[in-house]
Design brief:
This protein is α/β, with parallel strands linked by helices. The protein has two domains: about 160 residues, Rossmann fold (3-Layer(aba) Sandwich); about 110 residues, 2-Layer Sandwich (GMP Synthetase, Chain A, domain 3). The two termini are about 35 Å apart. Strand 4, helix 3 and strand 5 form a beta-alpha-beta unit. The protein has nine helices and nine strands.
């Protein structure tokens, strides 16, 4: 921005919390665009998706980390390390909790990890639209005795309640600094990653328990064809033949449904009409094989 003030502030904020507390919903609310996938299944966000919030006074770069949980396999182990690795690189950590559920082992696991961190930690109590205001104080006291939070902010990510106050409070902790990204940029991820996440979201929404997290989506190409339509080719990788059958569905119906719904979101993201081609491939136990994890973009050497 040309008229940037001399005391312009910018910084990085990490969103953490156990799986499924509303981190992606909050990120999308802050950035105003659908860039993080939203699903009520745990552990859907795998990489650091960054949302960028820009005004003429400040720029906040949000890092949405995978939910912290006790790892069950190598992919899970990598996801936890990814989340923890962001903690010391940021100006503020938002520890998001769901006020409709009691503090559980998952929250305690995160709190234990946060005790060793230098960055200021905010306790962000999400889903306050679902509880009576009188219920909030005991919840706040319960968490506050576990950790000395820099700030405590109750919000509702889904309806935007108090989110503005959260942003203002974050602003107080940001150092003076440059605008890192152009004001119209909302994510530093290449389209490939966001497109693959949108496709994955549609699969998880429709298949529920039958296809757990043993799927990866690899976007192989995004290119304009001779009819001026953007062609997107993507491969859905599953672990078992039975999962392939579920995703394709009877007479190809499920795959068609996934493709149609993903296409709408991708068109909104790219601002262009697209042609989406989806393939399904079986690669047994890809989550535990180092080489496959690398191929599918989960590169442990980065952390």
């Amino acid at each position: 921005m040309g008229n940037q003030q001399s005391n312009y502030k910018s910084g990085f904020v990490s969103l953490v919390g156990r799986p499924n507390v509303g981190k992606s919903t909050l990120l999308n609310r802050l950035v105003g665009q659908k860039i993080a996938i939203m699903s009520d299944k745990a552990q859907t966000t795998r990489n650091k998706i960054q949302g960028i919030y820009t005004t003429d006074k400040e720029q906040i770069i949000f890092i949405d980390t995978p939910g912290i949980h006790k790892p069950k396999h190598r992919l899970g182990d990598f996801m936890v390390r990814t989340a923890l690795s962001t903690f010391n690189e940021v100006d503020v950590i938002l520890f998001l909790v769901n006020v409709t559920e009691k503090r559980g082992p998952g929250d305690n696991f995160v709190i234990e990890k946060l005790k060793t961190i230098e960055s200021p930690v905010f306790l962000v109590l999400n889903k306050i639209d679902q509880v009576h205001p009188d219920e909030l104080l005991p919840i706040i006291e319960d968490y506050a005795k576990e950790l000395d939070f820099a700030e405590i902010v109750p919000i509702s990510a889904i309806d935007g309640n108090n989110v503005e106050r959260l942003v203002e409070t974050i602003g107080k902790y940001l150092p003076e600094g440059p605008q890192f990204y152009p004001e119209d940029q909302v994510s530093d991820h290449p389209e490939y990653f966001i497109v693959s996440e949108l496709i994955r979201e549609k699969i998880l929404e429709r298949t529920r328990e039958e296809v757990p997290h043993s799927i990866a989506v690899i976007v192989e190409s995004i290119k304009r064809n001779e009819n001026d339509k953007v062609e997107v080719n993507a491969v859905i990788v599953v672990e078992r033949q039975s999962q392939k059958g579920i995703i394709i569905g009877k007479g190809g119906k499920m795959l068609k449904d996934i493709g149609m719904n993903a296409r709408k979101d991708i068109e909104a993201l790219l601002g262009d009409k697209i042609y989406l081609e989806l393939f399904v491939k079986v690669q047994s136990d890809w989550r535990d094989k180092q080489t496959y994890l690398k191929d599918y973009g989960y590169n442990q050497d980065d952390y």
